[in-house]
Design a protein that fits this description.
This protein is an alpha/beta fold and 348 residues long. The chain has ten helices and eight strands. The protein is 50% helix and 21% strand. Helix 3 runs antiparallel to helix 4 and helix 6 runs antiparallel to helix 8.
Length: 348
């Protein structure tokens, strides 16, 4: 009997505690952090934010988003000398990862962030309940994570730079550009992370000195490489070089030089063949039909195929000549569309 009574009392106590958490009673006590969260914790060790809502979950989500916004504002307001910040702010979107953090903060955990405390208050006269949550970001924990990310991305940048230089020496210009563009993306991410680290942990920030300087440096290297490389294009049985010029236009969109004189190219050549063949159709009526095929590929200086492409179809018109012209226009259009997509995918 004693055991039963003891368990009953314990269960009642737990139930009372759960009820007090789920629905709070009116009280005159208000924690200091609700009134002034900045004074409640050492700002050199923590970044804090308070959120509120009609439920505890809403208050916690609001606090998490508020903390991310505070961090973003601090990063944007911080000027770091002799590094990647102020002079390059227009070129490098260092708020990108922070925007993602703010937008997704209700779904993911920010490294080093935790909900430190919850509080609810009910107004006696109205019965309206408001929940408050205190979000706390540990600068040391978050700083250690960002420092590790910077180091990892930096290793990728250096490795890709070396691989690009090696590819260029092997006369694989297209591959060299691919590798350097990838290195630039890693460098941009590292720039963003370094900017965040400068606010979270100045001590750790000062130990992270990227030997590539910034993503702008990688970008300058890439532009210099792209400027030095010339691709060629050669289309067999072309129509007034219309297909070759379409290829040239696509390369130009990627800021790559492409010459109609393939012998002067030093980075590879897009070689193709266009065939347009008349054929009879049982549904021809008064139309003339032609079948078209363009087969081509970008081949680097070593003879390695890096980008194959095939376009096929048919066109019809009252004369074979006009059907042929329509076929050429269709190939031009499809070539620009497909080659642009393929080239962009390979280079990004």
């Amino acid at each position: 009997m004693f055991t039963v009574k003891k368990n009953t009392v314990l269960c009642a106590a737990i139930l009372a505690m759960l009820v007090s958490i789920a629905s709070c009673a009116s009280t005159s006590y208000v924690p200091d952090w609700v009134l002034d969260n900045n004074g409640a914790f050492d700002t050199t060790k923590y970044i804090t934010a308070v959120g509120e809502g009609s439920t505890m979950q809403q208050a916690q989500a609001d606090a998490t988003q508020a903390l991310a916004r505070i961090l973003k504002q601090q990063v944007q307001a911080t000027t770091v000398s002799n590094r990647i910040m102020t002079d390059h702010m227009g070129d490098i979107d260092i708020s990108k990862s922070l925007d993602q953090m703010v937008n997704a903060s209700t779904d993911i955990s920010i490294t080093g962030m935790r909900i430190q405390e919850n509080f609810c208050h009910t107004v006696t006269k109205t019965g309206v309940t408001t929940w408050y949550a205190l979000a706390l970001l540990d600068r040391e924990v978050a700083g250690a994570w960002y420092e590790e990310q910077v180091i990892q991305n930096g290793e990728q940048v250096v490795s890709l730079q070396a691989a690009s230089a090696s590819a260029e020496l092997r006369h694989q210009g297209f591959m060299a550009i691919q590798l350097l563009r990838t290195a630039e993306q890693y460098a941009i991410t590292a720039d963003e992370q370094i900017a965040i680290l400068s606010v979270l942990s100045p001590k750790r920030y000062n130990t992270v000195l990227p030997i590539w300087q910034s993503s702008d440096t990688i970008k300058a290297q890439r532009l210099q490489l792209e400027k030095s490389l010339v691709f060629g294009v050669s289309i067999k049985d072309d129509y007034d070089q219309r297909i070759a010029k379409a290829v040239q236009a696509v390369f130009a969109e990627q800021n790559l030089d492409c010459t109609l004189e393939p012998k002067t190219a030093n980075a590879g050549t897009f070689t193709g063949e266009l065939t347009i063949t008349p054929f009879d159709s049982v549904n021809a009526q008064n139309n003339k039909y032609v079948r078209y095929t363009l087969t081509g590929s970008l081949v680097d200086e070593t003879g390695t195929e890096v980008l194959p492409l095939t376009i096929t179809g048919r066109e019809a018109h009252v004369t074979t000549e006009e059907a042929t012209q329509r076929a050429v226009r269709t190939v031009e259009k499809e070539l620009k569309k497909q080659l642009a997509a393929a080239l962009s995918k390979e280079l990004q």
